[in-house]
Each structure stands twice: as structure tokens, then as C-alpha cells.
Amino acid sequence: MSDISICLPDDLLIYINQKAQNPNSLIESLLQQWRKQQENEALAAACQLIDELNLGWDEEWQTQAITDWEASG
């Protein structure tokens, strides 16, 4: 795993250090959640585009895609 450095305003850094036992884990977790949200938003946009193009997903495939999406998150 690679290391990165980020800069935070002093007040935010103080808050994080006061509230979290392991600030590094908290920041890592927040970044993972943000990445997952970005992926979900991209998937939703792609699904909307497919719906707009009326490419004719069959109901079984669409149901499976929804089930997979819900299970992921």
C-alpha cells in the first residue's frame, strides 16, 4: 500500500484527533466510502443513459443488476 499526505485545516485536524481513536483509519474509511459513492453515481448515470436510449434490457437482467447493486452496498 502506498502512503499519501493530505493537508487539513487545523480546526478539522483537531476535531478528528479528538473524535477518532485512529484518525488514519477514519480518513481511509471516509475515502473508501466516497469512492464507492462515486462508483454508484457513475453506475446510476450509465443506467439512466441506457434507459433513455431504450436499449431493451430484459426484466430478468435488470432485476439481477438491481440485486447486485443492492448487495454491494
Plain-language structure description:
With 73 residues, the protein is mainly α. It has three helices and no strands. The model has no long low-confidence stretch (mean pLDDT 87).
How would you summarize the topology of this molecule?
Elements: H1 10-19, H2 23-53, H3 59-72
Oligomer: single chain
> How is the biggest beta sheet arranged?
none
Derived structural class: mainly alpha
Order of helices and strands: HHH
Global shape: elongated
Total strands: 0
Kindly provide the radius of gyration, computed on alpha-carbon positions and rounded to a whole number of angstroms.
Answer: 19 Å
Residue share in helix? over 70%
Low-confidence stretches: none
Mean pLDDT: 87
**Strand-residue proportion:** under 5%
End-to-end Cα distance, whole Å, is 24 Å
Count of discrete alpha- or pi-helical segments spanning 4 or more residues = 3
Give a quick summary of the entry.
The protein has 73 residues and is mostly helical. The protein has helices at 10-19, 23-53, 59-72.
Which properties best describe this structure?
3 helices; elongated
